[in-house]
Amino acid sequence: MEVVIMVNPRPLLSLLLLSLLSSHIADEVSATTITLFNKCPHTVWPGIQPSAGKPILARGGFKLPPKKAYTLHLPALWSGRLWGRHGCTFDVAGRGRCATGDCGGSLYCNGIGGAPPATLAEITLGNDQDFYDVSLVDGYNLGMSITPYKGSGRCSYAGCISDLNMMCPVGLQVRSRDNTVVACKSACSAFNSPRYVHLFQLS
Question: SUPFAM superfamilies from the xrefs (predicted)?
């Protein structure tokens, strides 16, 4: 099976682009692959954090320019989370900072998770069944969707592609230096209470 993860503020072309992109890749490999496609008008730096004991992929992070794709081949039984960082600046050694989703001030997250708020794609590969979702449990920074391709069983779309930064309540807003809302905190994090956690899970 192939899973295509889109960082996408404009959903109308997603399914067509996913189908065209996937058809060139899925037949070439038998293992599970993930294709990340950046439909944002700006560069995104994906971050990858494996679950405990699972291998780190692509050093945990890389640069993904607009309209570009990057394919990862997942080992059997791999699990972990992926997220998009934006507003990043790194030097030649890969040291720097991101406005959202930063992982310790490094281009290569190397197993470190992203600083909330960040939209998450969560993936678990099993022996007989795979699981995936898009979660806002750590808040929201970028629209994201997952579309499975050539899988078996009930493989459905998952995503949050609305721009929640545009409608984020004042008490949850994260603003950049120019006062633009760049992320939206989860209520359970902002108010330090688990009573809100069920409001921020999409699957």
Answer: Osmotin, thaumatin-like protein
Contact 158, 122 (CB under 8 A): no
What is the reported pTM? 0.81
**Average predicted confidence (pLDDT) for the chain:** 81
Which element (helix H / strand E) includes 159? Answer: strand 158-160
Query: CA triplet 45, 50, 51: central angle to 5 degrees?
Result: 145
Burial 145-182 (b: 16+ CB within 10 A, else e): bbbbbeeeeebeebbbbeebbeebeeebbbeeeeeebb
Strand ranges (E), 39-86: 45-50, 69-73, 79-85
- pLDDT at residue 101, as a whole number: 96
DSSP tag of 67: T
Q: What is the band of 110 on the pLDDT scale with cuts at 50, 70, 90?
A: very high
SS3 187: helix
The rounded distance, in Å, linking the Cα atoms of 84 and 90 is 15
- Alpha carbon distance 78, 36 (integer Å): 17
Indicate the helix (H) or strand (E) that contains 173: strand 173-175
pLDDT, tens only, 71-88: 998 999 999 999 999 999
Which tops the pLDDT comparison, 111 or 18?
111
Domains in the chain (CATH in brackets) are 2-202 (2.60.110.10)
